[in-house]
Amino acid sequence: MRRANNFRPGMCLLTVCFLTAFLGVYAGAAEKKGAAPKKEKAAEAAKETSGDSQKNTTESTTFQPLRIVGGIPDTLPIPGDARPYAESRYAKEIDRALAFMVFKCRESGRWIWYVLLDYLQRQYDLPERYSFEFTASNVVMTEENDLRDRLLRMSDPAFMLPLEKIEESSGAEYFLQRALYCKDYPIEDELVAQMADFVADESNYVVSPVAFAAVIMRQSQCVANTRNYMRLRGTLGVLYRERLTKEGIQNAFSAEALAMLKLLKYEKMLQENWLPEAVSYQNEDGGWADVFRRSNPGSSAPRATLFMLWAMLQDAMPDVEEVPLLKPGAVAEGEAAEVIKSP
Fold first, then answer.
1. Where is pLDDT greater, at 137 or 275?
2. How confident is the model at residue 142 (pLDDT cuts 50, 70, 90)?
3. What secondary structure letter does DSSP report for 24?
4. Is the CB of residue 37 less than 8 Å from the CB of residue 146?
């Protein structure tokens, strides 16, 4: 089995680029040769999504005309919207963060944030205006976005990428792609060991795709609690905790760490003062700043805002039943892939 961590010269620089597009940090390390579906596929999906969105908006009685001031509704919470988090200590901050993500965020490459916002909508029973069907416009689905094209399974359960195309990727993105298709192309324990080694390597600073891969494999029942999977999960948990303890609440990955520790079932690693301090840095427009922004530093960014929203919703509704990251149907039909057995 080939090594997934087969970076070529200059790949370290490309990994840093991973920071700016995937989870706010990665713009694409894999080569373009054949890895992306044709633009017609994205355009067709955009047309269907736009049509469904308009139909659903017309039929819905939830949405009311809104007055937008400064890019966000002038009245929050939005009149008529359900607020399952209403009893939260951060209810007002959640209102503002949701408004930022839907009304204010207009950056290119925001597809990934709408995919994750859709997950939050399903996980916490938020109004449908936060679902992917409503947020994904023609612009989002047709703009140049190699990352979207390679990870389209995250928003389109019916999309299928051949294994040979996945094999053209490397590093963190390769691991995530394999997890997305783990029911189609079974995961070997050796690959899980490679994921753990990747996270343990301090030179691989960006681990969010691997963290999502670990969660997706568990939720899809593609792996059992083998020694390598427990090592992967444990290494991720310790890494996120150390970033919060050593680098502080305003570091590049603090918001991500706050959300991912709970998603990885390591909520006991969180200190009580971390979330309140992080929430206190919310900007007036409802977002949080991202230290990776070189232009207009201090301005709100979707990556930090999405993860802070996630952490606040986790705090507001800690006992909700877990919903899979991948939408229903995002697995192969027929028998499930064989689960890794403990050695």
1. 275
2. confident
3. G
4. no
How many angstroms separate the CA atoms of 314 and 200, rounded?
27
pLDDT at 343: 40
What mean pLDDT do residues 149-166 have?
Answer: 92
Q: For residue 79, give every residue at least 6 positions away whose Cβ sits within 8 Å of its Cβ, in sequence order, or none.
A: 64
- Listing DSSP states for 153-203 in one string gives GGT-TT----HHHHTT--HHHHHHHHHHTTTTSPPPHHHHHHHHHHHH-TT
User: Would you state the structure tokens that stand for residue 297, as one six-digit string?
Assistant: 């530093």
What is the 3-class SS of 51-62, one letter each residue? HHHHHHHHHCCC
Tokens representing 310 are 């996630």
Q: Are 313 and 85 in contact (CB under 8 A)?
A: yes
C-alpha–C-alpha distance, residues 195 and 131, integer Å: 31
Per-residue pLDDT band for 107 (boundaries 50, 70, 90) equals confident
| Residue 216 · residue 320 · CB < 8 Å | no
Closest by alpha carbon to 302, among 51, 104, 28, 168? 104
Contact in structure between 44 and 156 (CB atoms under 8 Å): no
Encoded tokens for 230:
């427990």
> Does position 308 have pLDDT exceeding 70, yes or no?
yes
Compute the distance between CA of residue 10 and CA of residue 335 in angstroms, rounded to an integer: 41
Task: Tell me the β-bridge partners of 84.
Answer: none
Residue 319 predicted with pLDDT over 90 = yes
User: Among 342, 330, 333, which Cα is nearest to 115's?
Assistant: 330
Structure tokens at 59: 């039929």
Of 205, 210, 147, residue with least CA distance to 176: 210
d(CA 157, CA 161): 11
pLDDT per position as a tens digit, 10-25: 344 334 344 444 544 4
Q: Which amino acid is at 330?
A: A
